[in-house]
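the two lines:
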Amino acid sequence: MMNSTTKTFASGLLWAGAWVATAAHAVNDLPGGPAVRQLNMHPPATKIAAEQHSLHWMMMIICMLIFVVVFGVMFYSIWKHRKSVGHKPASFHESVKVEIAWTVVPLIIVVIMAIPATRAVVAQKDTSNADITIKATGYQWRWGYDYLKGEGDGISFISSLDNEQRVLSNTGAKGVNLDNYLLKVDNPLVVPVNKKIRIITTSSDVIHAFAVPSFGIKQDAIPGFVRDTWFKAEMTGDFYGQCQELCGKEHAYMPIHVKVLSEADYSAWVKTQQTKKSAEAQPAQQVAQANTAK
Amino acid sequence: MQSTFTRLLSAALALLAFSFQSANAQEVKGNPVNGEAKIAMCIGCHGIPGYQASFPEVYKVPMISRQSAKYIVSSLNAYKSGERKHPTMRSVAAGLSDQDMADIAAYYDGHGPAVTLPEQPSAPSARVNELLTKGACNSCHGANFSKPIDASYPKIAGQNRDYLYIALKSYKTDGNATWGRSNPVMGTIAKQFSNAELKELANYIGRQPGELHVVPQSKFR
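prediction for all of em together
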């Protein structure tokens, strides 16, 4: 009896050890994307996201303080003035003073919380004076990007998930450790650093949502409607997001990858895209010319 | 003079032969096994029984299991090139290479149960018969609407009625940025009919026994 218990215990330990061992060299944090056992929000890459962080912590601290004070007073009173030590309940009815106090105090707290929050929300919605305007169109199930205004206007492409990763996910990607699992796309959205980018969202079929947590943005993409949001990335790098509105069977497979480049690199990218585009357009033009010549 | 002409002629012929050859070389063979890995984007709509698209109006998406491979390839290419306009299908087709299309088409060609169909469809009403003769549908799509004279034409018998109607209507649509089909043959045919007549045609053809299916994925994996 004893023997079997130790055996089970030992095998359990072995299993736990094996699990820890596999976990140790499993996936790594993806900079700009999800981290392993991430608890907090993504590290901010824009002022808005940083603001959201500080707001989040401010609210959290206020809530914690209220929690501690309210429950502290409650449990202290329950314990200190319990019946068994001979305390008698007060028998008063309706106290205007108390009622005013418990209305005014929360009101003040809510106003204190609302002032910075409102300021942040107003800043989030201010999409004016953008340097570059890009339309993000949600399709079932990928994103299409059209550069409408600013450097690189006219560029347009479709960004879809790497099919190999999609196939991997059919079997649950067992034994495969990819840092960018289900986040790798063929054509990332490329933007310059320190420029205000306005993203116009719309959709061609159902409601999708364009979201990049590191930038602190999320905006629904609604068919037949146009909505917008903006960001100004303050560092170069890769940032990831996903569609955040349930949009059908492949909802989990339409990632967003934003590549933030330095201004010079961005100009170079725009140039290569435009030469590629004109190279693609040229044969068509020649055909058209040949047709008119006939 | 004569020799220059013959030389030119032979050069032209050689060029012609070469272009035919290259056209043949472009034809890619589809592999249904490879196709199965590439259909994630298809089954999201075409693999769900009763799934409805909402653009430009609500209708059931077409059934594609057992549709002929050559037609699937040609329709995907039409979406890719913009001959058929549909934003979501364009975004799907734009990411597919010729090989991908051939593989997917080969997969769906043999997908689902095979059905033996009657040689002749059920007798249409006098009015529908008139419309069918006017449109000469069976001259291309086959007597039972499931045996097209060319594999690049679709099997239409038993296809979803609302889809058939929308498809026919879209052949009449010109100059819309996001909607319409510019197939010259179907365009001239569809434009002869009013929308009400197209609906009658779609309802009749959609009621015929057909090979097309929606084969859902297994719920258990």
